[in-house]
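To fix ideas, we quote verbatim a fold written out as tokens:
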Amino acid sequence: MSKNLTRRLLLGWLLAVVPAVQAVWAQTPELKKFALAGWSKPITEITHILAEPDHGFFKEAGLALSYLPGAGGGDALRNLLSGQADIAFTDPGSFFAALDKGARLRAVYDIYPQNVFNVVTLADSGIREPADLKGKRIGVYSLASGTRQNLQILLQHAGLSEDDVTIVVTGLLNFAPLMQGRVDATAATDTGLALAKRRGLKPVHVMEVGQYLNYSSDLFVVREEDYQQNRDTLRRFLAAYRRSAQWMIDDPQRAAQLAVRRAIDGQDISLNEEIIRIRNRASESELTRSQGLGTLDPGSLQAAADAYHELGLIRSKIEISGVIATDLLAGRE
């Protein structure tokens, strides 16, 4: 074949193929980068977020999602406020504290409307009610953690304060000191308790903080300027997140299997499914069942903000109606 003929054939192929490729590119909208700041590393309980490469919930919404790990809700908010993220997965206590310091923020979605915190004692300890904690040693993850804040709420309902107990910082492996008798009780979360039971924790008695003040455990929070200027993008993100959360609720077994590949703690499929089912339960409430996942409950959040103020965890009273947004979610899908 002559060089001229080869060139003509190559030119003809380019003239035929390039317009077709350009047409496809023109029809494919460019994905908008969107960063989610988390409070944790990529763990099993957020498998629905980690499943993005497999299911494309956010891609379908025109978003290129990235996950920025953190070490607590305060970390997530710092990454949001520094501009590294577009939305923060954080706890109400960190949200209240940031507002108290003057940050302009809005909560836009209730991730876990159920309070997942508890205080656990060994069944044979004789400690059954919050009032029984007086004079006892109680473990918390850290002095800046939700375990401590929710312990304070529990004590308050019994007419007690931290002055009536001894706080012991145990770190995340807080059930070991309980099993070893170094503390009389430990403040934890529902998934932390499930993991401890798998590791041989004796029969226990559980005091659920939600029985005394049932408010959100985690929220999606954005900067006020983004709420004002980027509502369409936020609506698309929240709709995609809601679909991902519903997928994990509908198919926990598949999510547990996928966590083996996507979550750093997902080696045990059976444990994955237990943790996922626990988180699924925390994702729903009577309100969300009638109005859709993520629906904010202003009343419970106001009660929580008032409790934080009364405990001295924040200096100023917070008017919740001015720092939440209920207009970014459609009704039930």
Notes: The radius of gyration is 24 Å. Residues 195 and 271 are 8 Å apart (CA to CA).
